[in-house]
Write a structure and sequence with these properties.
This protein has 292 residues and is an alpha/beta fold. The chain contains 13 helices and six strands. The longest helix is centred in the N-terminal third of the chain and has 18 residues. The N and C termini lie far apart (57 Å).
Length: 292
C-alpha cells in the first residue's frame, strides 16, 4: 500500500477500508459472514470499508484479519498501525454544525490532489467570499432555523476549506464550472456580488485554479444538480460527491459512478465558455449589477 504526500486520519481511514474490503473479497466472504459473532454490524463494516468511520477497537481489526486468514505478522502490524493513525476525527469542533457525511467529505476533500466541481445555481463553496457565504446561510436561516452561532461557525469552516486553493505547499488543482445563473442571481446585495466576482477573478490568476462559466443561452449539455469529483492520488480511489436532502452528502468511489460523473463534467466543460473568457465576463457582470 502506498500513501499520498498529505497524510491525515481521513486518508489513513480510506486506505485501511480499501485494504479490508480487498481482503474480505479475497476470502470470498459477504459483509454478513465477515462480522458474524464479532460484536459489530455489517452496516458498520461497510462504512469502515468506505472510509466513513474508523473501527472502534484494534481487537475488532485483529478478529477480522483472523477471519480473513491473514497470518503475516508484518502485514498485520502495518494494518494495526493504519488503524491507530486513522482513529482521530477531523473537523470535530464542527460536529454540531455539519452532518456526519459532510464531515467525512471535508476530510476526503482535504487530501485531494485535484478537484473538479460543477454548480448550476450558486458559486461553489471553495470560491466564495466570507460575505457571500454569510449571505447564503442567512438566506436559509428562516427555513432551516439556523442560529447566528451556526452561521458564524459554518462560514468559518468554509473559509478554512478554501485554504486548499491558496496554501503555499502543494495547493489542490481546482477546476470549477459555474452556471450563469449562479452569477446572475444576487446573493446578499450588489456589493456582495461585485466582491464575489472580483474574488473569482483573483483566484483564476492562480496556476492551480480554473473557472469556466456555462452560459444560459449556450446550446450544450446541462446537469440539474451540483457534484464534485475528487482525485485522491495514486494510492486512493477517485471519489464522487453529490448533495442530497437534509444537509447530507452522498459519496462513492465505485468506478462506474466516478466514470459517469467524470463524463458529465467533461461534457459540461465542453459546453462552457473557455476559461480565458471568465475574467472579462465577470467584469461585465460587475458593471451590469452596478447599474441595477
Amino acid at each position: 500500500m502506498r500513501v499520498g504526500a498529505r497524510i491525515g486520519p481521513t486518508a489513513r481511514r480510506i486506505e485501511l477500508g480499501i485494504e479490508l474490503r480487498r481482503l474480505r473479497r479475497d476470502a470470498d466472504l459477504t459483509l454478513e459472514q465477515a462480522v458474524a459473532g464479532l460484536g459489530f454490524s455489517e452496516a458498520q463494516l461497510q462504512r469502515v470499508e468506505t472510509g466513513s468511520i474508523p473501527l472502534k477497537q484494534a481487537g475488532h481489526l485483529r478478529n477480522l484479519l483472523d477471519r480473513y486468514g491473514i497470518t503475516d505478522e508484518e502485514h498485520i502490524d502495518s494494518l494495526v498501525r493504519l488503524h491507530r493513525e486513522s482513529g482521530s476525527q477531523e473537523w470535530t469542533s464542527f460536529a454540531s454544525t455539519v452532518h456526519t457525511s459532510v464531515r467525512t467529505f471535508f476530510g476526503v476533500e482535504s487530501v485531494a490532489r485535484a478537484i473538479k466541481a460543477w454548480h448550476p445555481t450558486l458559486v461553489l463553496g471553495l470560491l466564495q467570499t466570507e460575505r457571500y457565504a454569510t449571505a447564503v446561510f442567512e438566506m436559509e436561516k428562516m427555513h432551516d432555523e439556523f442560529t447566528s452561532e451556526y452561521i458564524e461557525q459554518s462560514v468559518r469552516l468554509r473559509m478554512m476549506r478554501k485554504r486548499l486553493l491558496t496554501r503555499q505547499e502543494d495547493p489542490v488543482m481546482f477546476w470549477a464550472i459555474l452556471g450563469e445563473a449562479a452569477l446572475r442571481h444576487t446573493i446578499g446585495s450588489s456589493h456582495v456580488m461585485r466582491e464575489q466576482y472580483a474574488e473569482i477573478i483573483a483566484l483564476t490568476e492562480l496556476e492551480n485554479v480554473t473557472v469556466q462559466i456555462l452560459r444560459t443561452n449556450e446550446i450544450g449539455y446541462r446537469f440539474h444538480s451540483d457534484f464534485t469529483v475528487l482525485d485522491l492520488g495514486e494510492s486512493l480511489p477517485t471519489t464522487v460527491q453529490v448533495d442530497v436532502p437534509w444537509g447530507a452528502m452522498s459519496m462513492s468511489d465505485k468506478p462506474r459512478e466516478v466514470g459517469r460523473f467524470s463524463r458529465k463534467f467533461n461534457a459540461l466543460r465542453a459546453s462552457a465558455m473557455p476559461p480565458e473568457q471568465t475574467p472579462g465576463f465577470l467584469q461585465q457582470l460587475s458593471r451590469e449589477i452596478n447599474d441595477a
